[in-house]
Write a structure and sequence with these properties.
The protein has 13 helices and 5 strands. It is mainly alpha-helical and 315 residues long. Helix 3 runs antiparallel to helix 4, helix 7 crosses helix 9 and helix 12 packs across helix 13. It is globular.
Length: 315
Amino acid sequence: MSEFVTDHFDRYLQRVAGMKSDATHQTREKGLRRFNIWLEATGRDPLELSPLDIEDFLVALSNEDYAPNTISSYFTSVRLFYKFLDRDGVIDDNPAADVDQSNLKALTKGTKKHQETDIVYVTKDEFESMVENVPSPKLRNRLILRLLWQTGLRRSELASIQLDDIDREERSITIYSTKTDHTRTVYYQESLDFLLDQWLDNGYRESYLPAPESPYLFTSERSEQISGETIGKVVLEAAESAGCQEQMYRDASGKAKWRITAHAIRHGHAVQALKSGIDIRTLQKHLGHRNLDTTERYLRLLDDDVKEEYRGFET
């Protein structure tokens, strides 16, 4: 069983045992154990799953001739497990909540409908336009965007940075991940010094009421720690103002899902790093991926970029 599931599996099942019948507990456990087998067989990182990854799991069950009712039951187990992790702050978003319900219906009817998993990422031009169109407070939010882009951090990791985690001389930040129980170091560029100096040394951070008592790099007007949701909102508003945002679809609850998110900036960081010649294993460590397979998915995006460049190349 993977370390991720080992850490959180029992907590979730204990919660189920205290609230549901023995039969429900057994059903949830069976579904999650099958999900973990799939994770290990495919090398997927459970922290980096998209809705299409969850659909791939359902397709795998269908291809193994699981009954439609069983597929539906296993999907429910996975969806509720991730909902539990989302509420606990272990993940930023529940990937199972955004699964295309029509696709699930097709699977449970025995239709083997498969979609290739796509990674949505922010291009360098889109990012620079977002920085120019960032919402107020502009200095804080430009620093947030630049840090996301230069480090590839998850929004929850960025929100959790404390002042003592930053080595300004080395331009490094120590990340203590509550998701993986691992510590890693990420690095930012010299170009970020001005924004960071302004934020920390010239009174911008201290203008926030909770700042004097807060150990965190970013505070809000009312809280000692900025939330991941606030960071996500900054990204959404910047992308919309820059004219590069678009709605991809609405989930089952009717909530709009947007193309450019904080995680899309993380993907953009990875693509730019590989284009710059960063070794794939170095990038894996930098992003905090458990499995190399998760990082290697970005290589396919580079292949797509090469195709587009050559299609537009004239001799």
